[in-house]
UniProtKB/TrEMBL annotation:
The protein's name in its UniProt record: Recombinase family protein
A molecular-function term among this protein's GO annotations: DNA strand exchange activity
Active site: 12 (o-(5'-phospho-dna)-serine intermediate)
Keywords of the record: DNA integration, DNA invertase, DNA recombination, DNA-binding
Entry-linked SUPFAM superfamilies: Homeodomain-like (SSF46689), Resolvase-like (SSF53041)
Provenance organism: Dyella monticola
Amino acid sequence: MTATVVGYARVSSAGQSLDIQLDKLNAYGCTRVFAEKRSGRQVDSRPELQACLQFLREGDTLVISRLDRMARSILDLAKIADQLKKKGVALKVLDQALDTGTSEGRLMFSLLASFAEFENDIRAERQADGIAKAKEKGVSFGRKRALTAEQCQRIKVLREEEKFSVPQLAERFNVGVATVYRALQESD
């Protein structure tokens, strides 16, 4: 059985392009490439990565363009690295010139994984700070409320005094029944 050079490419959203990663993987000589457009947060929620890991056999090499394309946390990266090691699969990271087939490569892999997680944590902290600052300035997040406070009060009056049913109220205000129930709870 001959060793296979397998590539894996990932971008976080549908609007992003896989082209650059795919070009690098093909130029390296990957004979099979798994690619997907999904968030990198959870390894389990990426079917192409799971299929790739299942496909790999002893002696194969998994090639990725950057370390963060495969995992966003040290825990996920460590799990994947352990799985690859048990299968006898080497990992080659093109942009970081990393090859876990060597002891130096394994050391660098561990260090880069730590830095990648640190960078992700810093980004999350900055994002949380930005959200908090925006909220202080009165910026609201999420969907626009389906009903105004006045409409919620009117729903309560119609329900209690006029004996409207919840489906009737939902139809009258052009919202779902769950929204009517929430409006009734909020006004209590």
